[in-house]
Amino acid sequence: MTYEDLWRPLAAIYGSGEAKAIVRYVLDVRFGMSTTDVYCGKVTQLSAEDCHELQKMTDRLMKAEPVQYVLGQADFCGRTMKVGPGVLIPRPETEELCEWIVSSNEKYRAPDTFSEKETCNIRPAILDIGTGSGCIAITLSLDIPSAKVSAWDISAEALSFARLNAAALCAEVTFETQDALVPPDDTARWDIIVSNPPYICQRERTDMERNVVDHEPHQALFVPDDDPLLFYSAIARYAARSLKRDGRLYFEINPLFAGDIQTMLHEYGFTMTETRSDSFGKERFIKGVITGRKQ
């Protein structure tokens, strides 16, 4: 097989540019080939065993299976996360959400500069709701070293991947099986709550790529057309009582409902709401602050 033999059939699914990128990514991650190696024709020098493995991977890609599932990993914030069928693949946009949270909470990032008493008082309690692969919770645990991070998901399969990722990256995260729609009766427990909940309406499926619709877990993607704020409302209601004074709620959002979500946050008592756009210029993130609550 040549490089062209590998990418050209995939072009029918992804287009030539993305097909080439996918093949180069596979050759790099699984077979250690640089771009220079690929263009110098080293694909033709693979052993018979490697050729067999590459063919099996190509067969899966031809069924529009995401390359991250084929490789069993995804890149996120400069780290490698294990993924597989049953867990949502981390997106670059979600990296931007993590970067916003970390940069907005600089006071928590240097525990070595605090006295023991100060450290105890300044350790933020962070909750990631709907953790999936654990990418958000793990990133915040590692990039805000003083934080005490917990993460919820309803999927046992997702939590299994999340625990594996946390162990592999030496991140201290407490994972719990918890339905976001039926949260516990907590009061003033968290400093930060973050969630990237299901937010794609069923009617939007026709505009989505086959590799997403056919392979990624629908419970992590879709909400009913008649209740697009299903998860946002449940999480915001929980956050309104479970965040400490001046606690912050961060969401990744469907840009179609940015205004509706902002209005909803105000109704639940959040102030100082702020929306941010992703690198594609879409309103993708929102933050709300709970003020005035006694500790």
From TrEMBL:
Q: Name one GO biological process term.
A: methylation
Q: Name one Pfam family in it.
A: PrmC_N
Provenance organism: Xylanibacter rodentium
The family database entries (InterPro entries) matched by this protein are listed as:
DNA_methylase_N6_adenine_CS, HemK-like, N5-glutamine_MTase, PrmC_N, RF_methyltr_PrmC, SAM-dependent_MTases_sf, Small_mtfrase_dom
Q: What class of enzyme is it?
A: transferase
* Tree of life domain: Bacteria
Would you tell me the protein name for this molecule?
peptide chain release factor N(5)-glutamine methyltransferase
- Provide the Release factor glutamine methyltransferase N-terminal domain boundaries: 15-72
CDD domains (UniProt xref) = AdoMet_MTases
